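Summary for the lay section of the report: proteins are chains of building blocks that fold into shapes. Here we show the chain for Receptor (G protein-coupled) activity modifying protein 2 and then a coded description of the shape we predicted for it.
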Amino acid sequence: MKGAVGFIGVFLSFLSEISGHQLQFPCLNDPYCHSVCKICEDHPGKPPMECLSYLFDDYLHLFNNQMSSLNSTDWCVWDKVSSFYSDFSTYTENISDCLGIPWPNSLVEKLFVNIHAAYFKSCPTEEFSDPPPGIVFALVITPICLIPVMVSLVVIKTKNGDGTS
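The coded shape description reads as follows.
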């Protein structure tokens, strides 16, 4: 297994050299990925996860601006936010892939938890909503009304003595 990991590292390094510039860490051989890795290389000494965080912060700012362009009531309308949300999700996956970092990862999970806490925490969910008050009242009052009726029937039955009604 160690040989396979070493081979992958050498292969990715080779791919990085093809584009004309030796990068400090493995990067996918793709013009877009190469430009992403170059940004990370411009911040020397930082590990790929820190660069990933830096790149996510820039796009998160764009996502926040897009969400701010909507009314807060529209945040719960999937048709209005799905493109922003999907674009951000795709971006995090592509950047992670470029840097050779598994996706999802702890940073991505943290970002999406924060996004949900900021924008979607007050959105109603149909699955877990309470029933209307009338139905709740009927479900509560029915057993309460049946208890005296059942007690009365038991008392009448036991007074009869022979067990027949």
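Put simply, here is one thing we learned. The CA atoms of residues 135 and 141 lie 10 Å apart.
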